[in-house]
Write a structure and sequence with these properties.
With 333 residues, the chain is an all-alpha fold. Helix content is 78%, strand content 0%. The chain has 18 helices and no strands. Helix 7 runs antiparallel to helix 13. It starts with a helix and ends with a helix.
Amino acid sequence: MSHNPALDGIRALAIVLVLLFHARAPAFSGGFLGVDVFFVLSGYLITEILLSELRATGRIRLCPFFLRRFARLTPALLLMLGVYLVLAPHFWPSHGAHGLNAGLAALYVADYAVAYWGVPDLLSHTWSLAVEHHFYLLWPFVILWGSRRWDARSLVIALFTLFIIATFWRWTSLIRGDSWEQVYYRFDTRVSGLALGGSVAAVLRVPHWDVRIDKALPWGAWSVVVALICLQFRWHDFWMLTWGVLFAEVAAAIVILMAVRSRGVLHQAMALRPVVWIGQLSYGVYLWHYPIFRYLRETVPWDQVLWIGTPIAFACALLSFHTVERWARVWGA
């Protein structure tokens, strides 16, 4: 698939929200919804890659796909975890089990480990990488099976139905008494955004639906306004895991459609070179920022956490991007 710089702009928006949330900026208590933006975008990109390969070759080569995903995520993660293992005993001498924390993150099981046992604490942000990893393992089989059974329109309906089912499963889990943390972190309760992103990729391949999409986008833009209002809600808010996440996912899907289908003001803003640059570094920034912010939060107010921690996180991300991530991209090509 061709590179669309506006999609990097969406990554930039998502990582800025996450940084503000983890710095505990007062006006962004719901900034954790930035992770949901990442999920929807990831679902879109992975589905687009898989559908493009199916259209070009009639099949999905699973081993090369898994190798590319491994090369995209794991080397940068292992670099961060290696530095963490060296420095963590000095910065958090009273916090034990650093090896266990790093191991859970490296094995991509942090989603369920954080949900049920609260570990890895200082690396709890790696739960979202675990969710993505589980998605990568399952989604090629879903797309391959669905594409062989249904035409393009039926595939859209099937993927959107999966999104609805996943959403109601999250709601049901919360209503039936699962703890807020369990529902927030688990793969099975967070797969909805990934499925919605897949639906967006599928709907763009349906012939003659272009006009309908273009007409619907101005109305759908209102969901972006609602999602911005959701940023004022707080962690542990019951409403956030029901309607809040839903609005964030729908808003992300609308923004992706606007980035792909439109060349308007939003697309131009998302495609600005500084914004694209932030988006390209977003994965590394996400990896490095959390332990840095966690340490700073113990000693300085939120604004200093942001202004001190963000440049450090970007410096680490730049180093990772131009070393292990570059090598991994060549190796996994």
